[in-house]
Amino acid sequence: MADVKYYDVILKPVVTEKSMNAMSDKKYTFLVHPKATKSQVKEAVEKMFEGVKVDTVNTMNRAGKTKRRGTTSGKTSKIKKAIVKLTEASKDIELFQGM
Q1: Scanning 31, 71, 73, 75, which has the fewest C-beta atoms within 10 Å of its C-beta?
Q2: What is the rounded distance in angstroms from the CA atom of residue 33 to the CA atom of residue 11?
Q3: Residue 81 CB partners (closer than 8 Å, separation 6+)
């Protein structure tokens, strides 16, 4: 990925019931840039959140859905999600605290 800084990699956190339950296992879910690699996601999380050490990163791509409005059809944008697991000695990400 050319010229994408670490603050461009993570777009926003995913706040769903399933992702909130995974936080007890120190797993956090983010929407990331579609061309970001696992190593770039790891670097971005460690730089953005102080005292956080990433253990593993799992990514998944979702293709855009086909939508129709009358006779016109199109596709929604594709999405890439990353599930970041922190080490046991790592601090929690404070962005999710209190939710």
Answers
A1: 71
A2: 7
A3: 14, 29, 30, 31, 32, 59, 60, 62
pLDDT of residue 78: 94
CB 32 within 8 A of CB 83: no
Residues 84, 26, 50, 99, CA torsion sign: positive
Tell me: the pLDDT tens digits for 34-86?
999 999 999 999 999 999 999 999 999 999 999 999 999 999 999 999 999 99
Question: Which SS3 state, helix, strand or coil, does residue 39 take?
Answer: helix
Give the pLDDT confidence score for residue 64 in this predicted structure: 94
Task: State the Cα–Cα distance between residues 42 and 49, nearest whole angstrom.
Answer: 11
What CA–CA distance (Å, rounded) separates 23 from 8?
Answer: 23
Q: Is the distance from CB of 96 to CB of 38 less than 8 angstroms? A: no
